[in-house]
Amino acid sequence: MVSPPHEAMHRIFQHDPGLFSRVSRFLGVDIPAPVKATALPTDLTEANPVERRVDTLLRLETADQGSYLLAVEAQGKKHPDKPASWAYYTAYLWTKYRLPTALLVVCQDHATATWAQQPVSCGPPQLPTLTVQPLVAGPHNMPVITDPEEARADLVLASLAAITHAAEPDVDAILKALSTALRDAPEDVAKPLVEFTAQGLAKRPAKNLWRNLVAVDLSFYKSYLAEEVRDEVRAAVRDEVRNEVRDEVRDEVRDEVRDEVRGEVRDEARAESRAEDILLILEQRGLGISEDVRSRITHCTDPELLRHWLARAVTVPKAEEVFEDA
Q1: d(C-alpha 7, C-alpha 5), whole Å
Q2: How far are the Cα atoms of 70, 132, 147 from residue 177, in angstroms, in the given order?
Q3: Helix axes 155-164, 171-182, angle to 10 degrees
Q4: Whether the Cβ atoms of residue 181 and residue 157 lie closer than 8 Å to each other
Q5: Residue 67, exposed/middle/buried by CB under 10 A (0-12, 13-18, 19+)?
Q6: Residue 78: partners with Cβ closer than 8 Å, 6 or more residues away
Q7: How far apart are alpha carbons 228 and 176 in whole angstroms?
Q8: What pLDDT does residue 50 have?
């Protein structure tokens, strides 16, 4: 499953294709700003059934150096198969479009960034044939933008800085600067950047800070962050209401059962009282009462039958004849 940080790390370049040119100076290269950008299909699958898909693919056109392709890959952790995939992507794109192809890998931790920027060759040591060495943007080289004015000068870059530093101690200061800078931005500018940043933070502790900052600094803003809070509150309230309703139902059922049991106990008490009356009459008349007779009388719970036995107990010559004609 594709994670929110994965989406944020490459989709932000779709949102602002010129970001690559502005980021390039932090990567040690000088890439001219594009004058035109076109998002291209990311499916690189050939006729064979193996599916290959790059995260983001842009065609960027510059005023002085012509056109080139930019493939952006979001990499959350080391993966031994990725360099081979990157080699395939760049070779395939170069072959298909006949344009120079740049590969940018965006990471959120130092270890993955260090691994990703190592050159990998597909040939033997003495015959490198094809070497892949992507540009890598991560916490090791992306700027730590903690000044609201600096963030305001390039809001998209500030958002990328927050995303790439999501696990770093500096992220809180970056988020505070970004939220302050976004106060004056139009809603259509702020909205996607708030969401990109939230996606990039995923479930890290900084996500809660960002949500709180958005609530305070961008009170106009309504997004899935607000819906996320609403869903959390709804889940909590639902549990509370479920418990309340369960208690209410339990009380109602308890009252119903209490009434039912009270009626049953009342009938049992009446039966016991009537059985005692029958035995008392038989004893007062001096009739012998066997254990079988006593047991049958005391275990009977039918009030009409006991009433019949009571009437007969007054006249029968033997206790056993109480049950006759019953």
Answers
A1: 5
A2: 29, 36, 6
A3: 160
A4: no
A5: middle
A6: 111, 112, 115, 116
A7: 20
A8: 45
118 CB burial (10 A radius; 0-12, 13-18, 19+): exposed
* Whole-number Cα distances in Å, 241 to 67, 128, 228, 255: 60, 66, 20, 21
Per-residue model confidence (pLDDT) at position 49: 46
Residue 205 carries which side chain, given as an amino acid letter? P
List, for residues 41-55, the tens digit of each pLDDT value.
Answer: 887 665 454 456 889
What local confidence, expressed as pLDDT, does residue 78 receive? 93
Which amino acid does the sequence have at 124? P
Q: C-alpha angle with apex 233: 229 to 237, nearest 5 degrees?
A: 170
Q: Where are the beta strands (DSSP E) in 93-201?
A: 101-106, 120-121, 131-132, 135-137
* Residue-wise pLDDT tens digits, 59-109: 999 998 899 999 999 999 999 999 999 999 999 999 999 999 999 999 999
Unique residue bearing structure tokens 């709804």 = 234
The rounded distance, in Å, linking the Cα atoms of 155 and 163 is 12
Interstrand relation of 120-121 and 101-106 (parallel, antiparallel or unpaired) = unpaired
Residue corresponding to tokens 């198969």: 81
Residue type, 104: L
Say which amino acid occupies 246.
Answer: R
How does strand 135-137 pair with strand 101-106? Answer: parallel
Which residues in the chain land under pLDDT 70? Answer: 1-2, 44-52, 216-234, 236-237, 326
User: How far is residue 50's CA from residue 226's CA, in Å, rounded to a whole number?
Assistant: 40
For 136, the 3-state DSSP assignment is: strand
What H or E segment, with its residue span, contains residue 148?
Answer: helix 148-153
Please, which residues have CB within 8 angstroms of residue 21's CB and are 6 or more apart in sequence?
31, 32, 33, 34
In sequence order, what DSSP letters do the residues of 189-211 get, joined into one string?
Answer: HHHHHHHHHHHHHTTSTHHHHHH
